[in-house]
Design a protein that fits this description.
Number of strands: 11
Number of helices: 14
CATH class of the largest domain: Alpha Beta
Largest sheet: 9 strands, mixed
Number of domains: 3
CATH topology of the largest domain: 2-enoyl-CoA Hydratase, Chain A, domain 1
Order of helices and strands: HEHHEEEHEEHEHEEHHHEHEHHHH
Radius of gyration: 38 Å
Helix content: 40-55%
CATH superfamily of the largest domain: 2-enoyl-CoA Hydratase, Chain A, domain 1
Length: 411
């Protein structure tokens, strides 16, 4: 079975009505076995590939996520385009699992100070959406969402926890906050073709598929209450938490143009992609300054983050899958050996420093001794010839060093 067809036919969706209606033709083509991915999809894949920007103005440099020479203070740009599915699609759009790895990798990279999500999506699958939204909300790295046309349903849920949401145009549309399911009942058509359906359940499986089968019978209340309402409740709770000033009128599924979305608290402002980048760079720099100035709150977490990054780089761990990785006993031993070597070197340096301090103290003592000897050799000599006219007959006192005295005594 075509994987995209399976995704369309299974489960509830967080998607705008216009796009869900457009799936009818796609669904028909998939059922017929037709290829809906015509032409070269390399451009679509490139448009959905994340990248890193460093620098300012027209001098920005572009890096890949896997580059090892990313400068400090860089911005990660992560596109979220087209329908949102859990897994990557061959036509280009990347699934929420890959997007989640992108966000985590950027958040864990000390050289990335902020992120920009470029969004143009009608929404999509429920599965994976909440996890990606939580990762963005809980990111220690500031996140700016830039809407480039449409941010509906699941797409808006994902970006609702961003530090700032900027729309590109007055005609951008935002909202469609709600949950739905569209079921294509193909059984009658297949039965006309002679296909027979038999469903057999275990004796105790009396509730299995009950809600869904009632939907096929035209009874929607049970599925609505047990599935759609549960998902929607979490959806709305997340929006209220992420955007406390959002108007309750936005939570019924309506979609709004950008100016009204600002008034209702869905987004923050309208601006260009360059504006979004400037905001991201500024937020990133502010976070760095705050981390450096607030010892009690931010310095220690930053040190822990940098320490883990050092361990990650030492063992070349995959930054996109850190949670699933564990250090082996050999790796832990390597760390212990390195720490022991560093500790031994520190002790050696401390010993050398102590020897240098003792030598310095001995030199100071010798210097004071020589000064005392010089002071004891001071002499008094009468040198009336050096007197200026008009001065009295007082004795003039001059201090001579030992060598001068010895020389003079031999004359």
């Amino acid at each position: 079975m075509n994987p995209l067809l399976a995704e369309i036919l299974s489960g509830p969706w967080l998607i705008s009505t216009e796009r869900s209606a457009a799936y009818a033709s796609v669904l028909l083509s998939l059922i017929k076995g037709e290829n809906i991915f015509e032409g070269d999809s390399s451009l679509a894949r490139e448009r959905n590939r994340p990248y890193i920007l460093a620098g300012s103005g027209d001098q920005k440099q572009r890096f890949g996520f896997s580059d090892n020479n990313i400068p400090g203070g860089s911005v990660a740009v992560i596109p979220i385009r087209s329908e949102i599915l859990k897994y990557d699609q061959p036509c280009g759009p990347r699934g929420t699992q890959s997007l989640l790895n992108d966000v985590k990798a950027a958040d864990q990279n000390p050289n990335i100070s902020s992120m920009v999500l470029v969004v143009d999506s009608p929404g999509g699958q429920v599965a994976g959406t909440d996890l990606l939204a939580e990762a963005i909300k809980n990111s220690s790295t500031p996140v700016v969402a830039f809407i480039d046309g449409l941010a509906a349903s699941a797409a808006y849920w994902i970006i609702s926890g961003a530090s700032k949401i900027i729309s590109s145009s007055d005609l951008d549309r935002i909202g469609s906050i709600g949950t739905m399911m569209m079921v294509e009942d193909l059984q009658p058509a297949l039965e006309q073709m002679g296909v027979k359906f038999h469903e057999v359940y275990a004796t105790l499986s009396v509730d299995k598929n009950r809600d869904f089968n009632q939907v096929l019978d035209g009874k929607y209340d049970s599925y609505r209450e047990n599935v759609l309402d549960v998902i929607n409740q979490k959806f709305l709770a997340s929006i209220r938490s992420n955007r406390p000033s959002v108007d309750e009128s936005t939570l019924t599924g309506r979609i709004f143009f950008a100016p009204q979305a600002i008034e209702l608290g869905l987004i923050d402002e309208i601006g260009s992609f360059e504006n979004a980048l400037e905001v991201a760079f500024s937020m990133g720099n502010s976070t760095i300054v705050q981390s450096e100035s607030n010892e009690s709150k931010n310095i220690q977490p930053m040190k822990i983050k940098e320490t883990w990054k050092a361990i990650q780089g030492f063992f070349k761990l995959d930054p996109s899958n850190l949670e699933a990785q564990e250090l082996t006993s050999d790796q832990v031993q390597q760390i212990n050996d390195q720490l022991a070597s560093i500790s031994a070197r520190n002790e050696e340096l401390e010993t050398l420093l102590a020897d240098e301090k003792d030598a310095h103290a001995a030199s100071l003592s010798e210097l004071e001794k020589l000064r005392g000897e010089d002071a004891g050799k001071e002499t008094v000599a009468s040198k009336t010839a050096d007197k200026f006219p008009g001065e009295g007959e007082e004795t003039a006192i001059y201090a001579h060093d030992k060598i001068a005295d010895d020389f003079c005594s031999k004359q």
